[in-house]
Amino acid sequence: MKTLLVGCGGISQTWLKAIAQIPEIELLGLVDLDEALAKQRAQQFELELVTGSSLFDMLHKLKPDLVFDCTIPQAHYDVSLAALKAGCHVFGEKPMADSLTEAQQMVKAAKEAGKVYAVMQNRRYDPNIRSLKAFLASGVLGDITTVHADFFVGARFGGFRDHMKHILVKDMAIHTFDAARFLIEKDPEAVYCHEWNPKGSWYDQDASAIAIFEMTDGVLFNYRGSWCAEGLRTTWESEWRIIGTKGSVSWNGAEGFKAELIEDNSGFLSTYKPLTVHSHKATDFGAGHLGALQSFTHAMLEGKEPETICTDNIKSLAMVLGAVESSEKGARVPIKLSF
Ligand SMILES: NC(=O)c1ccc[n+]([C@@H]2O[C@H](COP(=O)([O-])OP(=O)(O)OC[C@H]3O[C@@H](n4cnc5c(N)ncnc54)[C@H](O)[C@@H]3O)[C@@H](O)[C@H]2O)c1
Q1: Is the pLDDT of residue 301 over 90?
Q2: pTM higher than 0.70 for the full model?
């Protein structure tokens, strides 16, 4: 697939490292508003290709089949629409867009162009989350009723994150919300969210949040998170407790799982037997961005729908934007998924 990558900032390095391992992707060019940065990336990765500062010009000059969008969230709408209009498929960084209206227009544009637009959700390709998903899918815990995820990482990024509204929910929690959808295969129906900025926070606003999602089939997903919590750090994948009608499983976000199944529930307190969460190699792909890119490439070459196709992944964005709206209104907000 002849490919153009646009946006040569921080995350583009992770993409370029992964692309180097996928022979089916032929990178033709790099675009950034700051062309010097595009040239710098080409040099850093020893790539002999065309660089430019105008996506429009590069699309017409190179005629790629595929565009990788690694620009800032506010540019995703314009970049993907331009690429789709030029007859390219698009695989872009999260989040899809800044608003649901824009995201819906992107979905529509992909449909009208007859092209694929998919979203990077690298955390789905962590081998441990794949193991947990397989364990849940086995049905051993009965019906899943409740999902708790805790994310506590005191991270000092500097830059735009220090000042951005809804920073934790918009920039980080989208990964955890998407992971919840991925794990239990339920969609969001409503949310109540409270954001605040704890004393001592080095962010201007909204560094902490609690969000309670009502998911389909009566499942509740409860998220607690902070980017300014000092001590007892969780992993970036969050710490999870998932409760089913027959038992529970916890995941520390790394390789630590604990699971218990009811043995006898005839008394005041039930007794349980431990269960093992087996390491499950669900795909032949690597982890993180590499796995996501391999999975996307594989699906495209097989003519199949990529796992994080926009028509599905817009639901994760809807969770984020629903949480933001709820927090601003101080009220429970229904999440409508009529895309
Ligand atoms: N999946 C992940 O784990 C992960 C991690 C970090 C960042 N991200 C996402 O990746 C995206 C980029 O983040 P970053 O940290 O690399 O940002 P960045 O600011 O370091 O880089 C973005 C680059 O895009 C360029 N750009 C902006 N608009 C453009 C346009 N219209 N045309 C061409 N170039 C344009 C900028 O000049 C800049 O060099 C964001 O959507 C972010 O949320 C994802």
Answers
A1: yes
A2: yes
